[in-house]
Amino acid sequence: MVFSSLIFLFVFLPITLIAYYISSRRVKNFILLIASLIFYAWGEPVYIWVMVFSIIFNYTNGLMMDKHSGNKAVSKAILTLSIVVNVGILCYFKYYGFFIENINTLLGLKLNYREELPLPVGISFYTFQTMSYIIDVYLGKVKVQRNIIDFGTYVTMFPQLVAGPIVKYGDIERQLKDRRENREKFSLGVERFIIGLAKKVLLANNIGLLWSSIKGIPLEGISMLSAWLGILAFTFQIYFDFSGYSDMAIGLGKMFGFDFMENFQYPYISRNITEFWRRWHISLGAWFREYVYIPLGGNREGKLKQYRNLFVVWLLTGFWHGANWNFILWGLYFGIVLVIEKTFLKEWLDSKPKALGHIYTLLIVIIGWVFFESDTIYDGLIFIKTMFGFGGAKLVDSVALYYLRTYCVSFIILALCSTPIPRKLKARMRDRLIVIEPIIIPILYFILLFLSTAYLVDASYNPFLYFRF
Amino acid sequence: MGRHNNIYVNSMVIMFICFIFGISILHIGIPDREFSEEENRILEKRPHISFNKIVNGRFASDFENYVSDQFPGRNMWIGVKSDVERAMGKKENNGVFLGRDGYMFQGFKAPDGEEVDKKLEAINSFAYSMEGVNKYFMLVPNSVKVLEDKLPKNAPIPDQLMYMDYIREGLHDSVEFVDVYDMLYSKKDQYIYYKTDHHWTSKGAYYGYRVLAKDMGLIPRDEDYFEVERVTDEFYGSLYSKSGFRHIAPDGIDIYIPRKARDCKIEFLDDNRVVDSIYDMDALKKKDKYEIFLGGNYPLVKITVGNKTCKSLLMVKDSYANSLVPFLMEHYDRIYLVDLRYFRGDLKELIGTEDIGDVLILYNVITFFEDRYIEGINKL
Question: In which domain, by residue range, is A381 found?
C-alpha cells in the first residue's frame, strides 16, 4: 500500500487510528504491528514471510548476542552471521539478476536466472534498520530488545516502512517503550502529512507527466530546450516525490506519538555538493557514515585511506539505489565531486559570490540525475550532449515551446516550494494577524488535502470509450 | 499565544479527522452505483472475501478499485481536478486537448509503421480477391487536423495528412481513395465537427457524402433536399467525458430527413431486431446521444430502402459512417454495414451471396490507425 492512495487515506488510516487510540498503552505497539503487517502484505502478500523471517532472525540474534556478551568471539560470530544473512537476503532479491547478468557477459556464460524477480517493498530500508539494531547491540550502544512485539513494531512500522526515513534503532529505542501521543503532536503530524501528500500528489506526479512525455521522444528528435525542461522536470519530480513521502512518514509517525529524524532539508538551495548531501536523504547518509565510513576508519587514518573510504561509501550509496551500472556510476560521480570539493573546490567556492555556488551545485546535481534516470550510460551521455548543444540538436522546437507554455506556472511553483520561502511566509503570516493562525492556516491545509483527494480520485478515472469509436 | 495555539491545534485535528472519517462514512452510507455514464463502464462492486483472493493479491486490487469507483462525489472531484489544471494553464487532460471556441480535440499519436503496413496489406489483398466489385476507401481526417488552427499553440500532434497520403499511395490500384480533406477544410468555419465529441456532425458527414458521391459517379442530393432538424442542444460527447474538463457548452445534434418520405427497414442481424428508422430517438435520453445514428455500432446491419435502383453497397466502417449512411440511403436499395470489431462472419461470402456491387471502407483517421481489427478484413 502507499500513502498517496484513496484506500490508505479513507480506509486504512481511519481504522488504524481508531484501533490505536481506543486500545490501552500495553497493546498499542501490538496494534501498530498488526496494522503494519496488513499495510505491507496489501497487494503483495507473499513477501510478508521475508519480513517475518527478518524480524525473528534478528530478534533471536540480538538475544543470543546478549547472552554471550562476555564472549567476544561468539558475539562477533553472531554479528557476522547476521550481517551476511541480512545483506544476503537483500542481494538475493535486489542484485541477483544484476550479478548473474554481469558474470554472463564477463565470462561468456549463459547462466539462467528468474528474470523480473519482484523486489519486496521496502527491503532496502528495513534491512538497513535491522542491521543498525544488530550492530548497535554488538557495540553495546543499545540494549537488547526482549519484547518481540516491540522489535517487530520497529522493523515493520508502516509510516517509514516503504521509503524511509531509515530510522536507526538507537534513535527510537526509548520511544518504543515510552512515548506520548497528544493533540499538539497530532496536529503537527497532520501538517506534515498534508504537506507531504500535496508534494507527492499535486507537485511530483504532475511534473512527472512532463518528464515521461519528453522521455517518450526518441533521443535524436529532442531539442536542447526540451532536454532541459525534461531533466528539470525530473529534478523536481524526484525531490517532491521522495521528500513528500518522507514528510508523510514523519507526519504519520507523529500521529502515533513517534519522532523520526528529518530526511530532507531543502537540498536544492545548497551551495556545494557536500552541503547537498547533508540535506538530501539525510538518514541514508547518516547510516552509511555510521556503519560503513567510520568503521572503515573514517578520516582518522590519513588522507589516502579517507579517500578510499569515501569511494567505498559512494559506490555502495549508488548501488543501494538500484541494481544497475548507471546507479554505480552516479554514486561514484558524487564520490569524485566530494573529494574534489574536499581538496580545494569548496574553499574556493566559499570565497566567491553565493550565486556561483548555487548554480554549480544545481548543475552537478542535474547532470547526476541524467545518469540516474538513463537506462544506459550511453543514453545518458547522448542526453547530456543534447543539453549542452553538442551533436547538432535544435535549440528550440515547437514541442519544447508547447511544454514550456503548459508547465510554466508549475515550474514557478515547484521552484518556490524547493526553498524555505513558503515556510517563512507562513511564519510571517502567523505573526501578522491573530486570526490567521487558528482559522486561515487550517483552511489552507484543508484546501491542500481537498485538492490532493481530487487528484487521487482523478487518477482512477478511467473512461471506457472503446465502444464509441 | 497559548490560547490561540490551542485553537489552532484543535482546528487542525478536527479538520483532518472530520475529513478522513467523514468521507469514509459517506462511502459506507451512500449506496453503490452499478454503472457510470460518464465513464461508460460498469463500476466495481464490493468484492467478496476469500482466502485465495487474499493470498494472491486479487482481493487487494479489487477492493482498491471498489473504493475508488464508488468514491463519494466522484464526478465532483474529477471536475475540481480539471479546473485546477485549467487554472494552471494546462490545455490537455487524458489525451484530450482543449482548444479555442470551446472545441475539444482527440489527440492523434503517430502510428507504428509496421502496423500501418500490415493494415494496408490486409486491405489490398482483400481488394485483390474482390474482382468485379467497385471498391472505395474513405479516410476521414479528424477535427484535430481540419480545425488545427483552433488547437493550443504548438500542441505536439503529428500531421494526419502525412499518414493519409501514405495510405493513399500504398493502396492497390483497384481501390479508389476518396479524399475528403480538401472539402472539409474549405468548410472549416461551419459546424462540421462536434466540440465535445470525437465525431463529425451531420453537416460534416454531408460534405463527406458530396465528395464520395462524386467519386462513385452518383449525383448527390442538394442540402435543401433534406429537412434539417435540431434534435438536442444538450449533447456532451465522449471528449467531454474523457477529458474531465468542465464548464464547456454542450453540442447540438442535427439530423437530416428527406423531405420526400420513403420506406426503409433496418435489420440488426446479430439479434434479429428490425426497426423502420435509422434514427434512434431513444438515444436522446441517454448520455451518448450520438447513438441516435443507428443506435450505435453492431456487427452486421442490413438496411433496405424502397429506391428501386437495384444497387447494393457494403460498408466496412467505424462509427463515423453512422451519420453518413442517411445520405447514402438515397442511392441504394440495400446497404450492409459491417463493424469488424464485432463481425465474425465471412466478408467475401457476404459479398457473393448478397450480390453486392459497391464496397466502401470508411474510417476516421484516429480509429483507422489505432484499431487492430482492420487487419482482419481479409482473414475472415
Answer: 186-417
